[in-house]
Design goal:
This protein is an all-alpha fold and 383 residues long. Helix content is 63%, strand content 0%. Helix 7 (148-154) crosses helix 10 and helix 16 (306-328) packs across helix 19. It binds magnesium ion.
């Protein structure tokens, strides 16, 4: 049994589920959340969704599924070191990207553009929508009926308007409070995971080079150490040795800095964590700056690389093409979506109808979206 600090989220003190259920027999409430997430349809689809690269570009790149597993690994390591709840952390990490559209950032931006007049689209709100409503598996309730703590952890950001709409789970945004420490750390583990794997994947795809990366302090220092220790190793191995050192440095700094903050603030329990003015999980200011430098480098050199940009344009065309076609004629969607769209249109007008169209598109994998686009617009595709 893991020893939990007093300020950890204790499963026995969960704020509960929306629909009351009997307690699990041999698992904690948060283990049950994690298990429900692993068995969900949206989780399986993460295998065919990507972040920067499109799924068919190669089998060696990270997918949303492997990304989520890496976030869970980093989160659990931090949680254990800080005596926080590993089960809760793992549940949040595995669910954090469930609402992502096909084609990564490009798909999200495109769908948000299409939804501008109908309430917008935001992937972390969509992740909550997936676990609260869109998974239809259980006889007695909609969604996965997860605990409050997992749901609030999934909801990383939220505008004041949306917070009002969402009620309890978003209350902290209106009250300016903090989520559990487990949620706070998942957020940063996500950042550690994607910055580092984007370096690795970017190098593999030859969109960025080792020489270019010398301008990033964090990379340069680890590069010098690895080259010094192993002057003759292959490039592939040296990249892995550098990336693992960068992850280790970020994780170690996060643990050290957060322990210090926790020792200073001495929160007695999770409620005292919630009412802190600022998060208690964080990097030191030097490492924060180093991480920001890496982020800026990736934005300028990888995310805006012309080969990525070209794909972004195409993703935009696919997502917007599908959206406009479905909104214009609902009958182009499978009948269950038509029914849902008609029902929500009755309730919320065109915004309701558009929401279901965006649910359908957001649920698509990269390859499904491309196939569907061809089925709709390519006259040679007659199925
Ligand atoms: Mg993520």
């Amino acid at each position: 049994m893991q020893t939990l600090a007093p300020y950890a989220a204790h499963a026995e003190h969960t704020q509960g589920r929306r629909f009351v259920e009997s307690q699990p027999g041999y698992r904690s409430e948060f283990q049950r959340d994690r298990d429900r997430i692993v068995h969900s349809t949206a989780f399986r689809r993460l295998e065919y969704k990507t972040q920067v690269f499109v799924n068919h570009e190669g089998d060696l790149f990270r997918t949303r599924l492997t990304h989520s597993i890496e976030v869970a690994q980093i989160s659990r390591a931090i949680a254990r070191a800080l005596e926080l709840n590993e089960d809760l952390t793992e549940a949040i990490a595995l669910a954090h990207d469930l609402g992502h559209t096909p084609f990564g950032h490009a798909g999200q931006d495109a769908l948000n553009d299409c939804m501008k007049e109908y309430g917008g689209f935001e992937h972390n709100l969509q992740s909550l929508r997936v676990v609260d409503h869109l998974e239809e598996k259980y006889a007695e309730f909609e969604g996965l009926n997860l605990t409050f703590e997992t749901r609030e952890g999934i909801l990383k950001h939220c505008s004041p308007g949306k917070a009002k709409e969402l009620g309890d789970v978003a209350q902290r945004f209106s009250k300016k409070q903090q989520p559990t420490l487990e949620a706070q750390l998942c957020n940063l583990a996500d950042e550690i995971a994607y910055n580092n794997h984007d370096v690795d994947d970017g190098l593999r795809a030859q969109l960025i080079s080792l020489e270019q990366l010398q301008e990033v302090g964090l990379f340069r220092e680890q590069y010098a150490e690895v080259r010094g220790l192993y002057p003759n190793i292959s490039e592939r191995r040296s990249i892995h040795e550098i990336v693992r050192r960068m992850i280790n440095l970020l994780v170690s700094d996060l643990i050290r800095t957060s322990l210090k903050k926790l020792q200073d603030a001495k929160p007695q329990d999770v409620n005292a964590v919630r009412t802190q003015a600022k998060p208690l999980i964080g990097f030191s200011s030097e490492v924060q700056a180093a991480s920001l430098e890496l982020k800026r480098f990736l934005r300028a050199n990888l995310y805006q690389h012309y080969r990525v940009y070209r794909m972004t344009k195409k993703a935009n065309q696919v997502v917007c093409g599908l959206f406009n076609a479905f909104l214009d004629d609902l009958k182009l969607m499978p009948s269950e979506y038509v029914q849902r769209a008609q029902a929500l249109e009755q309730k919320n007008g065109i915004d309701g109808k558009a929401r279901i169209v965006s649910d359908y598109i957001a649920g698509m994998t990269d390859r499904y979206a491309i196939t569907e686009y061809n089925r709709l617009f390519d006259p040679r595709t007659l199925t």
